[in-house]
């Protein structure tokens, strides 16, 4: 119980037990805990060591939910964990959430893309084994698993250049805060532009829903062969602006999530299963090693995205 941060065991006792366990080289096994451990419990019909998934209220699109809780629950069960979902609507509730998790004896926390700045500063990291996933607005002081944003751009560039595209436009979704992975994306774009001198033009813009006139003026002026959107919603923005794909210009999306409901869109699919599996494996390793708090050397694990064809690109080579 002390090794599992049980709330009825004093912190001094927990520290002593953990020290002895580390000296003896003991590592907990969640599958055994699931079967016989005092903290194994039934959560939404599943029995196992409780693991919390924390998601955040989107500041631009309240109610938006992209995280696949059902998939995470199934993957967690294979490792002996029972998933509990906590949705943080107000940044000011960060400390209260951490205290609640601690009182419930939860030691493992999987964090969705962080959208609240106070969370990074005020969450009680020293109490938990933590891993974050899928970008977000703010980097967190824990290990992180995500898709390879750099290679997504490189792959898309080579695909559309092989089709003959010479005028390429990139549309970034204008967020409230520039996300950390924008650095990787822009670095990849600069790399492609420097290595490929034959591309005629590369234009970039930030946009958001409701800015149809601005997008139309930009497309009319630059007249791209292909538009690359860092969100699939750009596909519908182009239609509203009078530039439907592929009739006026081809379209490719980065950051499609699998399974994506609109198979007409070509682009890079961010495989949720691979990212969540890698994140849960990393979190399970930290639990076994008692690695709570901020790691001395933070890991950033990249998972490759996959290219899918779609009708949003022209079927023939662009001339």
Percent of residues in helices comes to 25-40%
Please describe the biggest sheet, giving its number of strands, its sense, and whether it closes into a barrel: 7 strands, mixed
The best one-word shape is elongated
Order of helices and strands: HHEEHEHEHEEHEHEHEHEEHEE
> End-to-end distance, in Å?
68 Å
- Any low-confidence stretches, pLDDT <50, length ≥5? 34-39
What is the count of β-strands?
Answer: 13
What share of residues are in beta strands? 15-25%
Radius of gyration: 23 Å
Annotation field: number of helices: 10
The pLDDT mean sits at 86
Give the helix/strand class. alpha/beta
Overall description:
By secondary structure, the protein is α/β, with parallel strands linked by helices. Mean pLDDT is 86; it is low at 34-39. Helices cover 35% and strands 23% of the residues. Helix 3 (69-78) crosses helix 10 and helix 6 packs parallel to helix 7 (181-195). The N and C termini lie far apart (68 Å).
Outline the fold blueprint.
Elements: H1 11-24, H2 30-36, E1 41-43, E2 46-56, H3 69-78, E3 81-88, H4 94-103, E4 108-111, H5 117-122, E5 129-133, E6 143-147, H6 149-162, E7 167-173, H7 181-195, E8 201-207, H8 212-222, E9 226-229, H9 234-240, E10 250-257, E11 266-270, H10 272-288, E12 300-303, E13 306-308
Parallel strand pairs: 2-3, 2-4, 4-5, 5-6, 6-12, 7-8, 7-9, 9-10, 10-11
Antiparallel strand pairs: 1-2, 11-13
Helix pairs in contact: 3-10, 6-7
Outline of this structure?
With 319 residues, the chain is an alpha/beta fold.
């Amino acid at each position: 119980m002390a090794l599992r941060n049980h709330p009825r065991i004093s912190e001094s006792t927990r520290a002593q037990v953990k020290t002895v366990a580390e000296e003896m080289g003991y590592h907990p096994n969640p599958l055994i805990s699931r079967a016989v451990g005092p903290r194994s419990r039934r959560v939404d019909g599943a029995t196992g060591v409780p693991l919390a998934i924390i998601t955040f209220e989107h500041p631009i699109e309240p109610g938006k939910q992209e995280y696949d809780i059902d998939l995470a629950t199934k993957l967690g069960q294979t490792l002996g964990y029972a998933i509990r979902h906590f949705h943080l609507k107000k940044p000011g509730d960060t400390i209260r959430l951490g205290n609640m998790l601690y009182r419930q004896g939860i030691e493992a926390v999987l964090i969705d893309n962080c959208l609240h700045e106070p969370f990074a500063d005020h969450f009680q990291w020293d109490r938990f084994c933590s891993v974050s996933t899928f970008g977000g607005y703010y980097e967190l002081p824990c290990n992180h698993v995500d898709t390879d944003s750099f290679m997504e751009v490189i792959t898309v560039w080579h695909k559309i250049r092989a089709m003959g595209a010479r005028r390429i436009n990139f549309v970034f979704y204008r967020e409230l805060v520039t996300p950390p992975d924008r650095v990787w994306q822009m670095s990849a774009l600069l790399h492609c532009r420097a290595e490929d001198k034959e591309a005629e033009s590369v234009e970039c813009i930030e946009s958001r829903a409701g800015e149809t006139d601005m997008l139309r003026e930009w497309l009319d002026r630059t007249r791209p062969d292909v538009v690359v959107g860092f969100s699939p919603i750009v596909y519908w923005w182009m239609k509203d602006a009078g530039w439907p794909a592929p009739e006026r210009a081809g379209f490719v999306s980065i950051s499609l999530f699998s399974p994506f409901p609109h198979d007409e869109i070509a682009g890079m699919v961010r495989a949720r299963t691979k990212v969540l599996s890698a994140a849960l494996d990393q979190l399970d390793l930290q639990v076994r090693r008692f690695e709570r708090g901020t790691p001395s050397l933070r890991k950033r694990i990249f998972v490759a995205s996959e290219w899918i064809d779609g009708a949003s690109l022209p079927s023939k080579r662009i001339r």
